[in-house]
Specification:
The protein is an alpha+beta fold. It is built from 5 helices and 18 strands. It starts with a helix and ends with a strand.
Length: 294
């Protein structure tokens, strides 16, 4: 119970940090844009124009430096809780002490807690593909992702943790999914070729069919998206990109996106998103992409 309360507190903190981050980023970029687009009336003074351009350049470079620090703040305490993690643009395969394997997507993290009675893994952020080894005297293998809890003995499945929801897709065998935080309920049985999605509060009720090629497709550099918010999609692209993507758009969660995106070339995916939604991509320095209206 203490662990559940601690993780609940962590989740609320992450949510507030993300909200403050997104609001602050949009505000800072908007301020700079406004300052240097409302003062463009011709003055006839070439030197004054040069000074304005210099101010713009200095402002944007300073903004890039501040944002690179500012955007990492929500994740600091999360990494402290992780037993295994990957960095931006990097994936890794981990062998657990029972012989089970976990493949982590880019910028993903898990916490592991094995005992004589159970095998517990928490997906803290990102995505993980599990191949669970069966035991002679089987201990339950329990995976928690946000408000979702998955119980298995021996099978292969993907768990993806997004900002607003968690999902599990099964490629081999069968699993049982239930709420990790709400009242006790009858578990949803999920067999191979099916997916369950659970929001932050709602409990899973049924599984839906999933094309096998879409399960853990990130391992091959592809991301299948159906009716995601733009902010959720950019969250994923940021984990596979070595350059940070930020918004100069208010309420990006209202923009919905569907498609197949290339995780090996996040900038190409970002440009495709911008083209489809009437936005543009600006690069600032060597470490930042800004997605903004024209």
């Amino acid at each position: 119970e203490a662990n559940k309360q601690a993780w609940s507190t962590l989740e609320r903190g992450r949510g507030l940090a993300y909200a403050a981050r997104d609001a602050g980023v949009a505000s800072m970029i908007s301020d700079i844009d406004n300052k240097h687009t409302t003062n463009t009336a011709p003055t006839g003074a070439v030197e004054r124009l040069r000074q304005k351009r210099h101010v713009v350049s200095v402002s944007l470079v300073a903004l890039a430096a501040v944002l690179l620090v500012y955007l990492s703040a929500p994740m600091i305490w999360l990494w402290m809780a992780a037993d295994h993690r990957t960095h931006e643009g990097k994936m890794a395969t981990i062998t657990l002490q029972d012989g089970s394997s976990v493949q982590l997507g880019a910028d993903s993290a898990i916490a592991v807690d094995f005992s004589k009675a159970t095998r517990n893994v928490s997906v803290l952020v990102g995505e993980a593909y599990f191949e669970v080894k069966s035991e002679v005297a089987p201990r339950p293998f329990v995976v928690t992702s946000g408000a979702m809890q998955v119980r298995v003995t021996g099978t292969a499945f993907e768990v993806r943790r997004r900002r607003a929801a968690s999902s599990v897709s099964v490629s081999e065998g069968e699993i049982r999914v239930q709420s990790a935080t709400g009242p006790t309920q009858r578990a949803v049985v999920v067999s191979a070729g099916n997916t369950v999605v659970q929001g932050l509060k709602a409990m899973p009720t049924s599984a839906s069919p999933t094309d096998s090629k879409e399960i853990a497709a990130w391992r091959e550099g592809r991301l299948y998206v159906e009716d995601w918010s733009l902010s959720e999609l950019v969250d994923v692209l940021n984990r596979y990109s070595t350059r940070r993507i930020v918004f100069a758009v208010w309420q990006p969660s209202r923009i919905r996106v569907t498609g197949v995106y290339n995780l090996k070339r996040p900038l190409n995916s970002l440009r495709l998103i911008a083209l489809s939604n009437g936005l543009r991509v600006r690069s600032i320095g060597s470490g930042l992409h800004v997605l903004s209206p024209y």
